[in-house]
Design brief:
single chain; Metallo-beta-lactamase, Chain A; seven-stranded mixed β-sheet
Length: 242
């Protein structure tokens, strides 16, 4: 598996740093996971080569560019149709409400705890995370390698069990400092991300969803102190193998 980091800015995009978005590639299968602002125009492949779209939840910094895809795939001489879109039901409800119709370019499948799909050799399974709206984390597996993407989450619940033994944990790290000082409990600090990676015995930890006003080097240092291993950043425009 290869993961292309399209965007990783937490909460809002800035120039050169789209919000959350990744393309997971296995063989000739390419799945766009989260569609934060700025990600559609930054996709590493022709958008028509995207085989499916996965949206973790309804917050705009994770799904707003689905509307850019809708326009690009709909209003042209040969529209795309029935591109699989997987997300919690609440996401689809809001898309339909905003467009005032069901977009024909997408074929929607609701996903929640325990659901899984297969695209070629790529298997994706879902689990509810600790967030303020219905949100799914996702485990991606192919060729005996595995990635878990936390999406947005706090540390509560048992979602981390779904990440046990992964090769790569792609974790949000919205805060720095002591967890007790968090403004909002349903996000992670960098140290919490590191502690979770250590607990689930992940081989590697990659931090994402760091807001633009934070120094990412501090986030890495705090995560490394808790994880006990080197930690990487999800940098837009780069890729890594799982």
């Amino acid at each position: 598996m290869r993961v292309h980091v399209v965007g990783s800015s937490g909460t809002f995009p800035v120039a050169g740093k789209p919000a959350a978005g990744y393309v997971v590639e296995q063989g000739d299968v390419r799945v766009w996971c989260d569609a934060g602002p700025g990600t559609f125009m930054s996709l590493p492949v022709d958008p028509d080569l995207i085989d499916a779209v996965v949206l973790s939840h309804q917050h705009p910094d994770h799904c707003a560019d689905v509307f850019a895809a809708y326009h690009a795939w709909t209003y042209r001489p040969e529209p795309r149709e029935n591109v699989p879109l997987l997300a919690p039901q609440a996401v689809w409800d809001r898309i339909v409400s905003f467009l005032e119709k069901e977009p024909e370019c997408f074929a929607f499948t609701p996903v929640w705890n325990g659901d899984e799909v297969q695209y070629g050799a790529l298997r994706v399974s879902f689990v509810e995370t600790d967030h303020s709206v219905p949100t799914v984390g996702s485990r991606w597996e192919a060729n005996n390698r595995s990635l878990f993407y936390t999406a947005d989450t706090g540390p509560a619940g048992r979602w981390d069990e779904h990440a046990a033994g992964v090769n790569v944990l792609l974790s949000e790290a919205s805060y720095q400092g002591e967890p007790s000082h968090k403004v909002y409990s349903q996000h992670l600090t960098a140290s919490e991300a590191g502690a979770i990676a250590r607990r689930v015995a992940a081989d590697q930890l990659v931090l994402t969803h760091i807001p633009p006003y934070l120094d990412p080097t501090r986030s890495v240092a705090e995560a490394e102190a808790a994880f006990g291993r080197p930690v990487r950043l999800a940098v837009p425009g780069t890729s890594f193998d799982v």
